Amino acid sequence: MSTLKIKKGTSKHSAYDLKDPNADIIETHTLTVIVTNEAGVLARVIGLFSGRGYNIESLTVAEIDHEGHTSRITIVTTGTPAVITQIKAQLGRMVPVHEVHDLTEEGPSVERELALFKVAGHGDKRVEALRLADIFRANVVDSTLESFVFEMTGTSEKIDAFADLMRPLGLQELARTGVAALARGPAET
Predict the structure, then answer these.
(1) How far is 31 from 33, CA to CA, in rounded Å?
(2) Per-position DSSP letters for 138-174, written without gaps between them
(3) Subunit notes for this chain (predicted)?
(4) Is the pLDDT of residue 188 over 90?
(5) Mind listing the domains of the chain with CATH numbers?
(6) What is the pLDDT of residue 173?
(7) Distance between CA atoms of 89 and 107, rounded to whole angstroms?
(8) Would you place residue 186 in the very low, low, confident or very high pLDDT band (cuts 50, 70, 90)?
(9) Which pLDDT score, from 0 to 100, does residue 71 have?
(10) If DSSP codes are grouped into helix, strand and coil, which group holds residue 112?
C-alpha cells in the first residue's frame, strides 16, 4: 500500500477531481410540455418528477387543441443547471410528449397566475383590505357583511405580496391556479 504525500504549498486537487462550478446553484425554470391528451399522461409526467426527487413549484394543465387532442402542461421547477437539463431530456423522451420548451432559457415570456383570497374583517381592517385590493387591482367577486373574496391575476410575486398584506387584515383562505405561461413574440415555425 502506498501513501501520497503532498508538499507544502502544492494544490490538493487533481485534474480528475474537477467540480462543476454551477453544482450548488439552484435555479427556477418554467417549462411547457405539449402532450397527447390521453388518460394517464399527467400521472406519468408527475411520476418522472416524484420518482427522481425533483421538485414542482407550480403545475397547470389544460387541453389546448380539441381536434388534435393535445394539452399544455406548464411546470415551474427548481434545481441545479444539470438537474434542469436532465428533467428536460427525460420529459422529451416520454412517448406522449410532443414538445418541451424551457421558457426561462428561450427568451422573454409572459407568466400569470390567478388567485382567490377570502378575507374576513370588520371596521378599519375591512376598509384597509378594500383599499389595498384597489391598489393591487384585485376584483371583489363576493361580499358578505363578514368577508370578501378577491380575485387577482398577476405574477406569482404580486400574488405573494398581496397575500402578505392581507394576512394581518384577516386572510382566511387562498386558492391559486399555478403559473400559466407563453413565450413572447411570434410563434416559431
Answers:
(1) 6
(2) PEEEEE-SSEEEEEEEE-HHHHHHHHHHHGGGTEEEE
(3) Dimer of large and small chains.
(4) no
(5) 24-106 (3.30.70.260), 109-183 (3.30.70.1150)
(6) 98
(7) 19
(8) confident
(9) 96
(10) strand
Q: Dump pLDDT digits (tens) for 119-140.
A: 999 999 999 999 999 999 999 9
For residue 54, what is the DSSP state?
-
What type of residue is 119?
A: V
Residue in this structure with the C-alpha cell 410540455, named with its chain if needed: 33
What span, in angstroms and rounded, lies between the C-alpha atoms of 47 and 53? 10
Indicate the helix (H) or strand (E) that contains 131. Answer: helix 123-135
Tell me the per-residue pLDDT of 18-44, one tens digit each, with 9 for 90 and over.
Answer: 555 556 799 999 999 999 999 999 999
Q: Cell triple for residue 146?
A: 363578514
Statement: the pTM of the whole predicted model exceeds 0.90: no
Region 87-92 average pLDDT: 95
Classify the C-alpha dihedral 63-184-107-25 as positive or negative: negative
- The C-alpha angle with vertex 78 and arms to 89 and 113, in degrees rounded to 5, equals 105
- Hey, what's the cell of 60? 397547470
Backbone φ and ψ of 92, nearest 5°: -65, -25
Query: Other CB atoms closer than 10 Å to residue 143's CB: what's the count?
Result: 11
CA distances from 83 to 22, 72, 105, 127 (A): 11, 22, 14, 47
Burial (Cβ within 10 Å: 0-12, 13-18, ≥19) of residue 2: exposed
* pLDDT of 7 above 50: no
